[in-house]
Specification:
The chain contains seven helices and eight strands. It has 210 residues and is an alpha/beta fold. It is globular. Keywords: Glycosyltransferase, Transferase.
């Protein structure tokens, strides 16, 4: 059974997160753009603060779909040292790609957050939200980056993900909440009746509401 859209998926997740309602030590972090409508429903229904956590993949030169690392909100960079070393990627190439992706991350930070400072996460329980997990690389990069912020707990919360991907991510976090875990996954959009692209404007409007 599919979700109607990201908002309805968020309401389903809200019912599984009731224990965190109105807790002052909890924050909801959304991976833009698709994760923001899902996270908005969770944060608004449970009276929790909502913010964004932007992750940008650092693609291997000439093979951009292959990730050699990622950068994330808060000035965090995570490298896949095995790929960097095995492919002998030069520092010059890494720096060029890092600069380009950092510019895009900064653009999104400014557009979405404005001058609002990045939230303080040490000792917080972080509910990390996306609209689904396909390969899992973006989520794994976000988790690695978040851990450097020393939160008390990280709870990955998604409406749908491949069962195998959930099994891979579960040991990396304190809890994973994913009510739909199909064996034959294919793509996130297959599990939504409406999976139209979330726009920058929609992200900004939702962040302003909370």
């Amino acid at each position: 059974m599919n979700y109607d859209d990201r908002y309805q998926a968020g309401r389903v997740l809200t019912d599984l997160l009731k224990d965190y309602e109105k807790r002052t030590d909890v924050i909801v972090l959304a991976l833009p753009r698709g994760g923001v409508p899902v996270a908005y429903e969770i944060a608004s229904k449970l009276s929790l603060p909502l913010d964004i956590f932007i992750v940008r993949k650092l693609g291997v030169p000439g093979h951009e779909e292959l990730a050699m690392g990622a950068i994330a909100s808060g000035g965090i960079t995570v490298f896949n040292e095995e790929i960097v070393n095995s492919l002998h990627i030069s520092k010059e190439a890494i720096n060029k790609i890092h600069k380009s992706e950092q510019e895009e991350l900064s653009r999104r930070e400014l557009a979405y957050r404005g001058k609002k400072p990045f939230p303080m996460l040490p000792g917080k329980t972080v509910i990390l939200v996306d609209d689904g997990i396909a390969t899992g690389y973006t989520m794994r990069a976000a988790i690695a980056a978040l851990k450097k912020q020393n939160p008390a707990k990280i709870i990955v919360t998604v409406p749908v993900a491949a069962r195998s991907t959930c099994d891979e991510i579960a040991p990396l976090v304190d809890e994973i909440i994913c009510p739909m875990r199909p064996v034959n996954f294919y793509a996130v959009g297959m599990w939504y009746n409406d999976f139209s692209q979330t726009t920058d404007d929609e992200v900004m409007q939702l962040l302003k509401k909370i």
